[in-house]
Amino acid sequence: MTTRARLAVTLKYASLTAGCLVAAVPLLVVFLASLKSEEELYGETPFAPPSNWFNLDNYRTAFEEGQMVDAFVNTTVILIISLIGTVLIGSMAAYAVSRFDFRGKRLTMFLFLLAALVPGVTTQVATFQVVTGLGLFNTRWAAIALFMGTDIISIYIFLQFLRGVPKSVDEAAMLDGATHWKIYRTIILPLLKPAIVTVVIVKGVAVYNEFYIPFLYMPSRDLGVVSTSLFRFQGPTGTQWEVISAGIVITVIPTLIVFLALQRYIYNGFARGATK
Amino acid sequence: MSRSRTGHPALKVAEPVGAAAPAARHQRVRRPLAERAGRRATPYLFIAAALVLLVVFTYVPVVSMFGYSLLDWDGLDPVSEFVGAGNYAELVTRPELFGVFTVSLYYFGGTIVQLAAALYFAVILSFKVKFRNFFKGVLFFPYLINGVAIGFIFLYVFKPDGVLDTLLGLLGVADKPLWLGDRSVINYSLTGVSIWRYFGLNLVLFLGAIQSIPAHLFEAAQMDGATRWQQFRHIIVPGIRPVIGLNLILGVSGALSVFEIPYVMTGGANGSATFVIQTVNTAFKYHKVGLASAMAVVLLALVLVVTWIQRRTIPDDTTELS
């Protein structure tokens, strides 16, 4: 290897290592902080290791005072219902559009396309009136309805996928006398499995991380989800960084587990569903 | 522009169903009348749920937002006053309302840095590298993290005498600014956080785009003795130019609607308020729904214009790479 080539290789790995340090160090120092006592945290540098690696006091405090158990229950309920709803509603709509020719189809598709461009946060000014008008304010249904109702990307993902499925597959079933509902249920839905995986991942991450919708529509403490409960850690009692750090770690761990378990699907999913 | 693309779903919709229609029509002739009516209702039944949700949670709000923007209304009072274009006039004449768009410039600058870094790492990772998946995973993971958690992580990092100050101290930097306290620094700090958060997505998108370049192009180039730089310049850049363009435009609309990071970290204090923060504060803190709606309408118009430019400048069939 020439000197120049060796230098290039060195630079390559040096820059990759530097990039990874920038990505990882903020997470690692927070993890260290979550294991420290208050005195330790303020007495030493942020990089000093904790005196006891198994000090879980801050996690206990975070779970108890931060109501993180409630938060995970609420998030899970909202996540499951809105994911099921999104998959069913989106796949049914995609089935209608890809397999039928009907009046108003072009207009419908145009409405979906246009809606995908509307930035969600700003229209909350007016969405708020709709949600309160429907009596959903301060209920989990506010978040569920909005997560299901504003999901246009998943319809596109299903639509895209269905275009690749030859129509002869369901036409054959129709000749056998199957109803459209039966074809959707027994043929289309199972065929859509890879697209469902994509939708569940992209949407699931978005719902788990969503902050403003639950913050705005579910102000009651008991309805806190992971994001809003964590947000309340920065309370009037002053900043207890060791407890906040534990809260951060509690929030990030499920994400990390899902990421490690589903890496390949996650990369593909985001590459496909990312433009929104 | 080929119409038969198999790529990205989001940006193109209406597609002629001509292929299916003749067969369907042919069948219809032989079916009894009642069944025909049922068949005609079927697609509407399948799309009904999606359409109702779309109308209730997107179109009703958007349309009523236009209406509210003409009112002087607190959002609660049954009584409101019609002020016509008054809110828009107020928006244009009060510089503190419109001026926050300058904050978007920081984030747009950040997008450029972010795209450049993502491109660099994507190119490196698409050639032979040890621990490739490890590097890719670490660099991508921040994108998946909860925004509130990211906000708090960086409040801790930026804290006076905190992580960043300690690191700079080790490097011998004595004079450290107040990262979130100094008005001339705060938007750089927050932009940095934004880069940290979204960089991973660009990386994965670029990596995917580079991998979809046919391998034989690289093989041929290598046989001709092309250097890595030449391969980058003449194969990779032209191959993924549409993706770069798309990400750049998405960066513009993203920069216009920045919200979560500054809202969580500073609440918009110290000159870090963005247009969206100001809009939601105007609506939900100061209860000026009319004015806030006018602001939302302006932002919506801007984003639509940017998207329109995107659709004009980036041909249809290339958006699939995104």
TrEMBL record, chain A:
Membrane topology listed for this record: Multi-pass membrane protein
Spans through the membrane: 12-35, 77-97, 109-129, 141-162, 183-208, 243-262
The UniProt record lists the keyword Transmembrane helix: yes
GO biological process: transmembrane transport
Superkingdom of the organism of origin: Bacteria
The keyword Membrane appears for this protein: yes
Domain ABC transmembrane type-1: 72-262
Name of one Pfam family that matches: BPD_transp_1
Localization (cell): Cell membrane
GO CC, any one term: plasma membrane
Family: Belongs to the binding-protein-dependent transport system permease family.
Protein name in UniProt: Sugar ABC transporter permease
Organism expressing this protein natively: Planobispora longispora
UniProtKB/TrEMBL annotation, chain B:
Membrane-crossing segments per the record: 44-68, 105-127, 139-158, 195-218, 239-259, 289-309
InterPro entries: MetI-like (IPR000515), MetI-like_sf (IPR035906)
Compartments reported by the entry: Cell membrane
Its membrane topology: Multi-pass membrane protein
UniProt GO BP: transmembrane transport
Pfam families associated with the record: BPD_transp_1
Entry keyword set: Cell membrane, Membrane, Transmembrane, Transmembrane helix, Transport
GO terms under cellular component: plasma membrane
Location of the ABC transmembrane type-1 domain: 100-310
The family this protein is said to belong to: Belongs to the binding-protein-dependent transport system permease family.
Name this protein carries in UniProt: ABC transporter permease
